[in-house]
Write a structure and sequence with these properties.
Elements: H1 9-27, H2 31-45, H3 54-61, H4 65-71, H5 82-91, E1 97-100, H6 104-114, E2 122-125, H7 126-129, H8 138-146, E3 154-157, H9 160-169, E4 173-177, E5 194-195
Parallel strand pairs: 1-2, 3-4, 4-5
Helix pairs in contact: 1-2
């Protein structure tokens, strides 16, 4: 979801600037010192379910992470042509599922802001399955619970580790997003077909 359907600028700003600011205020330290303390903590949880868990970080940092996200919810934005693509897929009669590492608390804030939930037949949070999408055991668990034909499935994600796990499981069509954050340069993606925005997947008029 984040960096695929939604502009990753929100999350990058939140974790790299806003949370350090609030942490610095809480501990009466400089933002620089706050970042020096927080960056190793964040790095240690990358790729783990805890990294995506608002409850975990609220406990670790003694901050109301969900509440802080709500404070700057105006920065939440849908990436270009996402709605066009989802509308076209729905019109084609395809089953559309959102499979996200986002915590339910974060998901609720973002769906309220964007209303993208109306496009999906199912919304699945990795927290409900107990593993993040990049874990090799995620997809077998997902298959057992929801059932899908991996060979005919199109899966789009901005996270290369997630795409690698999906490829190892045998998902047939994998696409990366080369510009997940609108405020940052386009990334060079070498291992997967990449789109800059979802217009690249729409039929040519």
């Amino acid at each position: 979801m984040d960096g695929t359907l939604l502009d990753l600028n929100f999350d990058n700003h939140f974790w790299q600037e806003f949370v350090p600011q609030k942490y610095a205020e809480l501990h009466a330290i400089s933002i620089h010192d706050a970042k020096q303390q927080l960056i190793p903590l964040f790095k240690s949880m990358e790729g783990k379910l805890e990294w995506y868990c608002l409850d975990y970080w609220s406990s670790q940092l003694n901050l109301d992470i969900a509440g802080l996200k709500a404070e700057i919810a105006e920065l939440i934005a849908v990436l270009p042509h996402v709605v066009d693509f989802l509308s076209a897929v729905r019109a084609a009669g395809k089953q559309v599922m959102l499979v996200t590492n986002a915590h339910r608390g974060s998901l609720a804030i973002k769906m309220e802001k964007t209303c993208l939930h109306t496009f999906f037949d199912e919304i699945v949070c990795s927290h409900d399955l107990g593993l993040p999408k990049e874990h090799p055991d995620f997809w077998p668990i997902f298959q057992a619970r929801y059932g899908f034909d991996a060979t005919t499935t199109l899966f789009v994600d901005d996270n290369i580790a997630v795409l690698n796990a999906a490829k190892a499981y045998g998902i047939g069509y994998l696409i990366s997003v080369s510009k997940p954050d609108s405020s940052r340069p386009k990334r060079e993606i070498t291992h997967y077909p990449a789109i800059e925005d979802f217009r690249d997947l729409l039929p040519v008029a």
